[in-house]
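[scheduler] slot 2 assigned
[scheduler] job type: sequence-to-structure, two independent chains
[scheduler] chain ordering preserved from manifest
[runner] begin chain α
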Amino acid sequence: MRKKIPLAWLQIIHAKVRFVVALAGIALACVLIFVQLGFQAALYDSAVKLHRVLRADIVLISPIARNLTIMNTIPRRRLYQALGIPGVDTVEALYIDNLTWRPPENPRVVQNSTVLGFDPQYPVFTLPSLNQRLIEVRARDNLLFDQGTKGNYPKLIEQLQQGKTITIEANRRRIDFVGLFNIGSSFGTDGYMITSDLNFLRLFTNRTKENINLGIITLQSGADARTVKLAIAEQLRQENDVRVLTYQEWIEWEREYWQTGSSIGFIFGLGVVMGFVVGVIIVYQILYSDVSDHLREYATLKAMGYQQSYLLKLILQESIILASLGFIPSYLVSEVVYGFCRAITRLPLEMTLSRSVLVFVLTIVMCIISGTIAVQKLKSADPADVF
């Protein structure tokens, strides 16, 4: 049975300490890649959380808006101009602004939430549980609180679930949380608050009803979004203060900002590259040491007639074995890291099959590159010199 065990496997397990160190190094590099890819995906997914729960076919935004948290404003009358386009069913206005507040459970903590204001008589969300509570925000200074807000507020959430009212002070005004909904935090905001357009304007006294942040347009059944979008754009062509996007284009616009317009997306991408490079270096050091320690044996194989290609195949086999075994603990550790970060940040950090396959392939490639570099040492394995 022992003779049937591949030589590459025997080479790897011969030095058990080195074998364990190699697996630990590969696992560390893989965990780094997993974490960077996980946060990168969470960045893009969390950035469009709000987009996915809005009832919209076409949106109107400011041409100088950068992302959902920096929307600038457009004239509300642009909505009424769009209403006359064939195929348009409804138009609604959404007000967006950032609110700094302190939770009653821990007044030392400063939260940055995004407040959404609209006419509650015409719901703009697709969440049934949220729409059932919109009647509560018609009362003066009433808001709904996002239970997915980043932070730990068990007491506040429990009291709201029991039907109690939580009063805080923000923007020099007392406001009341009267209910809950769940959208969640993102890299741009700690969470959301929802209220009526009138309460929004009371809370942000520098805002006016005529200037909105987002125009939400729904279409009649059977209407083509792209065709109607082009018609609206033509109608508003002479206006330089509005941009027309389909729902999907709006999502891609948001994602593009975080991918290319912000430094965060670049940093996560760089982290993946650095994890890959670290893995290549670690595996190279392990394989290079192994080749150096067994240089006499490799020289003997050459003297017996084995070609360089056989030795390369041997080292590559060692690389693939190390990659496969090192990936397993990295996957398990990354699951734990994802769970911990998800609980702390409230970001959608989930392990996916596609990401697991990608990291496994990167691990194989990483180890093959290291093996290909390390095998260059075998060119010097000349029996005449070694012995």
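[runner] end chain α
[runner] begin chain β
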Amino acid sequence: MGRYTGPVCRLCRREGVKLFLKSLRCDSPKCAIERRGDQQPGMHIVKRRKISDYGARLREKQKVKRYYGVFERQFRRYMDLAGRSKGNTGSTLMSLLERRLDNIVHRLGFAGSRRAARQLVGHGHICVNGRKVDIPSYLIKAGDSISVKSRPKSVRYVRESLEGFQGRVPEFLSLDKADVPEGKVLRLPGIDDVSIPVQPALIIELLSK
């Protein structure tokens, strides 16, 4: 499985918005966006030029891909699945991305970032409906239960993450901080549940050509 191994703060600076790719650093004065403003990455300081219509659509797509940690081929599959589904294609696309297991684990506070959540899932620390699932792209459904594997190492890691969790659990999820932390999917997420400003229509226009 491919993964980005470069400096993640560079991605936030390129998109000009916080993508929350690091857990504590993004909410501290050390955040690259806070320190450097809209300065693009690179050794030469270049003022932002007026972006074209194509550029605006491309940047929107790249922002969403980097926010959820997916690559082009996987993103295209989500797009194809959203196009075959009923309802608004843009809203369905964002709902599919929000339903990824690594995203749900992160939004429950089990991991400080989506990258950490992918690692948590991949190492077998997470169960869905009582069964171990080690596929980060697994799509959850309404009514699913996401829990930590009942072993000391898994529970200890998640409890440490929950103690430092500064966000809030979204409305489509519920969290029970019991001896073994567990989350519940109350309903499927919608466009209003996305925690980053996004215009799905621009992405659809780009990929529909």
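[runner] end chain β
[qc] chain β: The radius of gyration is 18 Å.
[scheduler] slot 2 released
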